[in-house]
Sequence to fold (228 residues):
Amino acid sequence: QKEVEQDPGPLSVPEGAIVSLNCTYSNSAFQYFMWYRQYSRKGPELLMYTYSSGNKEDGRFTAQVDKSSKYISLFIRDSQPSDSATYLCAMSERGNNRLAFGKGNQVVVIP
Amino acid sequence: GAVVSQHPSWVICKSGTSVKIECRSLDFQATTMFWYRQFPKQSLMLMATSNEGSKATYEQGVEKDKFLINHASLTLSTLTVTSAHPEDSSFYICSASPSTPGRYGYTFGSGTRLTVV
Fold:
């Protein structure tokens, strides 16, 4: 079983819809949870950073972490064509800088 | 804050030559730098981790003699692909982290697209 599972299936939504992405993980030592956005031929850009369980909201983005279920989610409200990108979940243990990544979801927001 | 600059953004080289990629942390001291490789439509694959002043730690299956990593200062790490071959063509990305990562600990460069012909 991979440390981080993210269904890599592409996702197409109409503009204005809510995008819902999620990852599951197996390592209970993960403490830091991140979502990155990656445009084609660019490096990943940190979108959301959360520590342990709970919700975090930043503008149209909401990140949720449920450590009991080993499940994290990212929601994008009022999606825009500019949100079209690949979204990667990542996580790490306390005291360990190494990131474990999901495979990424390609999201296409159709105008 | 937390800006990582990576150069060049793309490079084409002939088979058998070497290519150097630079990764600089512009506004923080990068105690640790990571080098990743990414194939089309795939996630990032960690190649090696380097700490300033120490030898890099390579992931299993990554040839350390082929992918030379130098992290001589707290703001600069370099990856040199030696004797490049077409199968080395890929997207290489660096990431830098201060000693206490915190909120901005995992900042990525913009990536380098290497094409070996």
